Amino acid sequence: MFYREAGQFKVSYAADQAIFPIRQDQIGMAMILAVAYVVMPVAGSEYWLETIMIPFLVFSLAAIGLNILTGYAGQLSLGTGAFMACGAFAAYKLTTAFPDLNIIVALLLSGVAAAAVGIVFGLPSLRIKGFYLAVATLAAQFFLIWLFAKVPWFTNYSASGVISAPPRAVVGELYVTGVHATPQARYLFCLTLVAVLALLAKNMVRSSIGRQWMAIRDMDIAAEIIGIRPLRTKLSAFAISSFYCGVAGALWAFFYTGTVEPGAFDINRSFQILYMIIIGGLGSILGAFLGAGFIVLLPIVLSRLPLMLGLPISTATISHIEVMVFGTLIVFFLIVEPHGLARLWRIFKEKLRLWPFPY
Amino acid sequence: MEGFLSDIFIAPFVSMWEYPVFLVEVLVGGLLVGVMYSLVALGFVLIFKASGVFNFAQGAMVLFAALFFAGFLEAGMPVWLALGASAVVMVALAIVTERVVLRPLVNQPPIVLFMATIGLTFFLDGFGQMIWGSDIKVIDIGIPKEPLEIHGVLINSFDIVAGVTAGLLVAGLALFFHYTKIGRALRAVADDHQAALSVGIPLQSIWVIVWSVAGLVALVAGIMWGSSLGVQFSLALVALKALPVLILGGFTSIPGAIVGGLIIGASEKIGEVYWGPALGGAIEDWHAYMIAMVFLLFRPQGLFGEKIIERV
Amino acid sequence: MSRQAVAVAPDLVATTGGEILDTFPKLLVHHAAVRGHRTAIREKEWGIWQAWTWAQVRDEVRWLACGLADLGFRRCDKLALIGDNRPRLYWGITAAQALGAVPVPMYQDAVADEMAFVLDHAEVRFAIAEDQEQVDKLLLVKDRVPKLEWIIFDDPRGMRKYRHPALIAVDEVRARGQAFARANPGFFEGELAAGKGSDTSIILYTSGTTGQPKGVMLSYDNVRITAANAVERDGLNDSDEVLAYLPMAWVGDHVFSYAQAYAAGFAINCPESGATVMTDLRELGPTYFFAPPRIYENLLTTVMIRMEDAAWIKRKMFHYFMEVARRVGLRILDGETVSWQERLLYGLGRLLVYEPLKNTLGFSRIRVAYTAGEAIGPDIFRFFRSLGMNVKQLYGMTETAVLVVMQKNGEVRPDTVGTPCKDVEVRITETGEVQFRCPGVFQAYFKNPEATQSAKTEDGWFLTGDAGYFDDDGDLKIIDRAKDVGRLNDGAMFAPKYLENKLKFFPFIKEAVTFGDGRDHVAAFINIDLTAVGNWAERRNLAYSGYTDLARRQEVYDLIQKNVEQVNRDLAADRHLSGSQIKRFLILHKELDPDDGELTRTRKVRRRFIAERYADLIEALYTGQSNCQVDAEVTFEDGRKGRIHADLELRDAAVVEVANRDPGRLRKAG
Amino acid sequence: MAALDQAETPDADTREIGDVLLRVDRISLYFGGVRALNNISFEVREHEILAIIGPNGAGKSSMLNVINGFYHPQEGTITYRGKTRSRMRPYQAAAQGIARTFQNIALFKGMSTLDNIMTGRLLKMHQPFWMQALYWGPAQREEIEHRKFCEEIIDFLEIQHIRKTPVGRLPYGLQKRVELGRALAAQPTLLLLDEPMAGMNVEEKEDMCRFILDINEEFGTTIALIEHDMGVVMDISDRVVVLDYGRKLADGPPDSVRSDPAVVSAYLGVGHD
Predict the structure, then answer these.
(1) Which residue of chain A comes nearest to D143, CA vs CA?
(2) Does the pTM of the predicted model rise above 0.90?
């Protein structure tokens, strides 16, 4: 309905291959960015920024990471939490060992550390597939979390086994982590990093490497026969996916909670990210954001609903009901649209583009 | 560092050599725990074999069954009635699951069904605890817990009962699969859905039956685990222990689930007792997975799984 | 892209810096100098719109022209161009003109025999063919046209094995041209300067309704001045975009896509293929558009069919707002006063229906659109105008370079064709024939002095052969070919085409042929529209096996009878034509087909041919039989011939009695 | 695509069939106890169209699988471009210029036609992943350059209208065409086609035949194909190898194979086609 595509013809491949080839989409994206960069920091409350927006961004990044591995390359992983933990602890070790290291560099390096670990745990993917692989990634999940909990070196021998983000600035006195950092600064930093990394991810999935991943996902034998090297491709997916999860983990520890223990990245975290990409849509960068938004907002809505409706229910019961409803919703979603919110959006957009015609 | 290496590579073996009776005790204890793993893994295998669904909710079903059983006991039911009532609950659960979750998702890719069972897990956890509360419940059905000494080896009599029960269950299932019409049909489904349809059994009924059987297995496992650990949320996590068993045994092999369970149980106990202290403890969380993963690299289809021949 | 619009005054087009821009090649060089970086032409190819600027086009044309010269092409030689709308074919036209030679574009769907006639008659020496298909046809007839020396082909696909000595790739010609241009600096410019406005710029063969095609010779002045006047009238400029999709051999394309593009400096855009025209139209979103009525008609039909499948609520909304548009859309477009409530409602309609609808059709950016060639159905015309799309009618023909009578903004009626353009004189003779004297009147028919003489007077009046009159608003109304206007035996005027058009305005009727001159009453042949009637039949669960089967159904006859009777009611209201109501009709057993010679290539009915061919059927219509056997020869798609046998039903239609009847004398306009 | 070069071959009606490109020498392949191929030998010459025919289960597909490295024969050798190959993976065969299509279409269902063909271009794309992530400069240029190439294939196979359609939604005949496009994208030296015309109607078969001949003619690609339709095989191939239950029955030009008594009794005689 709002689309006016007549006249938006492409005279170059660059324009034809743009991420948002339609002008109305470009405008929409610009508006979203404007809201995210201007309206949110100005109008959003601290609560809103700290408990909704920052976790939303962090989860989105992790979901992009998992989506690269599972949605694009077709390798089911249940070890996302562990890769996030790698990033978190690497960032902690890096920032404490090299206090002068710029926070951006530290974050990216911690992503690299997670990527290295990802490669190691991705090695079995050459031999094993599907659920066997999923179970194998659980090995990473349990082993790594155990490792971070048991080896005091990772926490700089802290007695509590908890790490806290040291105060760090991007430039000068502009603190983005630690006690001095305002929620706005932390939010904007996360936003920028996530936006840039999301763009890079989008670029990868629409390039040769992304097509290799999808080829392996859709039909690995055919992929190999046209010249794709399975191990290298799968490992690249593991590495890049783990990089994203690692950075997300570091953001989690440094920008969201501030302090973190290995338990924060347990198997439930892995499942949580997996829901995001399933509900958001496998094989879609947009889906990662939609799924993260959904999973972040859902518990908040669920936990407030009885209060808002004035139902006299004990908090314990509420938490049980919450879990139940959550499970039901997942099943409901899978039945209604197994391809997730991203597919729903695509269908909706297609309708808008063809409006008023049905096809 | 040297001490650490010695703790890993020398001390455990020395200790095994020096105290063989203790080693046997540990081993037997591990094997008996392994039997319990097998019970849970069995539920997985049944469902995966018949419907190709990777049922993550098996652990939740164990908790769910145990909660109901313990709840019925607390409500004053006699053991046999509580057992019957819980069985009815599990069959009802199978029917509802098939109708509400599986049927609408038929023909969806495996990962979607897998996700649906995770949804089911959440539902069962929430629902069970909403009804029965989240306090720890005790199941006491009169199984003796005194240690027994056989040839100088101390064994918990409860473990023996559990082992025997599991063994009987497995034997029963094996008989069921081999000698009943339904059992044969189930095996046919596992091999080929089309073939199953030609036998004349609707897929839906087969799914209900197999989920019911898996539910009953979960009930038995729940009673066993519940008696030994108490009924609480952590029971659901037993499922995570069953996963390496599956890898080891193969997703589709009943004997694989048994043998895999025994191996995992035994090695876990031995690892915990002999290597745990050196590594800082709590290694049972992951070391079963590590064993399974290393194993997978050499035999991707598991111990008893069918060899995968790739076709073009 | 910069959208800086440069309004083009006619004097700029005519001269710049003392240099007279009286030919298209000179205009090309001028545009290359003035707007060298603006896009001159695009082609949808390999997934995107490949674009060439005016400067690039100048170079391409120069190389092509030099290449042709290198091959021995000389002043006054003829260059045939055969194929879909392709940049290289358009360049070929200008290249030929640059050398003072005459381009002869030909219909790409013509069969080899038809081609042979034109090639031979026009004395074509060189031909540029688009692809293998056209080359094959040319090679087939090459022996019969000894003057044809070179066949230049654009797309080499599939011709790797071709070894004919007359074949040469256009790329090779271009390469030779580059070398030639280097060796002969100033050659191109010299040739350019030798051209003048009174030279013949093009020969367009009209597939006349009778006899062999005639080659209409138009001078540069004919085409250029006419085009420039029209550009001025509609305020076109170099930011406009036009889709070049009509046959290049048709004057419509030559004027709208070629001459006006040169006159105004706007870009023309070639679709990817015939099959993708609609998609390409949507992508491109032209600002200036020209289409014969049947294209508007097809678009409307698709719109309606697609909307039928929409959800109930969407359909309701669509029909509601189309009703609003019918009420106020035309008035708003014509600048009349409309209440603010109605304006608001129309605005809502724009948001919800009109703009999205135009967008999906590719008409979002249309500033001016035209239709011509035939009468357009009033419903179709109103539909597009009520959406806020400025569709207008014009009247003209190949012999006048088309643009002679056009509707002005705000003065648009569905049944008239508008007022004369600048420099156009119009007179209407005693017999009702419309005649023109204007800059566009052609030079002559090529090698056909008799025809020229009968079409053009000594003092430059062109005899259109059309009957028409000026209505009270001063708008020209055309009713039929003057020679076709006849009398029934009771003296009532009979304008067959007018009746046929009225019939064809019904969606279920695709073609109609009426008879009545020298008869007691009017009778009609009907061709049903297979898509529309087929859809209608499907909705009624009426199974049918094809056209012939559907056409003989009683239900279909009933449906068509209602339409015929509606026409009769309309005619009864017209004092000129109330006597020529249709008394009997039949539905033909086959679709009229250009391949059988029943229609022209531009799908005009060849009435006389049909009358001869189906004499039995006509007799049956007038002898009161209720059935008639037919046995006719048809040509299939692949060129094979076959025979069809059918038993046709003949029907009576109710007529409205009119008490007072004007004998139907055409008024002479003042 | 390939520039028209009139001077290349003086004689317009024959293609130059060149040296031996691939030699299959005494190949035997077993699955468990089943012998799929039994001591098969034949050659594929440069620029020729070779058809491998035989009844179902004759080992035709196994033969292709051996050639492109998917199956490893227990006995015998394969010599490609004069080099006897050791055990290799399919992607190595691809890197040497062997491309193929499958009997049961093996497209990447989640991708569009264009992306499928672009994937076939992969071996020619060399930008590192981080350049691709930036999608800047050389990486974007590379994408565009290969897009152009793929557009030419799309044009060649006349599938412009489905360029951006996900292949899962396409009808069977078009999917086959896209798969051929993906194989072509690699600019293979040797193209293996596994029943390229299976399940097609007459018109689609004619189109496919024309494409196969055009590919062979325009790019000089050597083609080895498996086909059931005898009419097609006899029409387009230069040479025919007949397999029957893992054995080779005959090997020669279509005409001589057609009249070979062993072939007639084993295959043609049983009313095939």
Answers:
(1) A207
(2) no
